[in-house]
């Protein structure tokens, strides 16, 4: 008797995870398992937003890198500013996509700007640069999202 109850609880847990309210009954009526999985995956990580964030953050890092006397820091400031704006403009929290886009932007900037350094074995410098890009873009998106949320919330 307890085995049957455990099986039913496991089925209920599985149906909650998959999004079925009536476990097997809804699968025939509504959307298929594949389309539900695809929709949930896109809600978790949006490839379109990732591509937009990557392009915007790469451009901002290149532009920030042209500031005289502070090329590297200027690129990171540009990266943070663009991530902050992206976080403030989007209605949903897309911190993961923005942070990953920052990682790619930092990688492209590092690759194109310091090709001789990387060829000479600067993997530690590359790892620190990629980590900094991920962290700074993620923080910028989070702070921008937090500001937008604070400004639009009712008191």
Structural class: mainly alpha
Helix content: over 70%
pLDDT averaged residue by residue = 77
Radius of gyration: 22 Å
Helix run count: 8
Query: Could you say which overall geometry the principal axes of the C-alpha atoms support?
Result: flat
Number of domains: 2
Major beta-sheet overview: none
Order of helices and strands: HHHHHHHH
Count all strands and give the number: 0
Beta content comes to under 5%
Description:
With 155 residues, the chain is mostly helical. The protein has two domains: 2-44, no CATH class; 47-152, no CATH class. It is 81% helix and 0% strand. α4 (47-64) runs antiparallel to α5. The longest helix has 30 residues, at 123-152. The termini are far apart. The model is unreliable at 4-28 (pLDDT under 50). Residues 1-34 are annotated as: Disordered.
What are the key terms here?
single chain; 155 residues; mainly alpha; 2 domains; transmembrane; membrane; transmembrane helix
Summarize this structure briefly.
This protein has 155 residues and is mainly alpha-helical.
SSE inventory with pairings:
Layout lengths: L1 H17 L6 H5 L3 H12 L2 H18 L6 H19 L5 H19 L1 H5 L3 H30 L3
Helix pairs in contact: 4-5, 4-6, 5-6, 5-8, 6-8
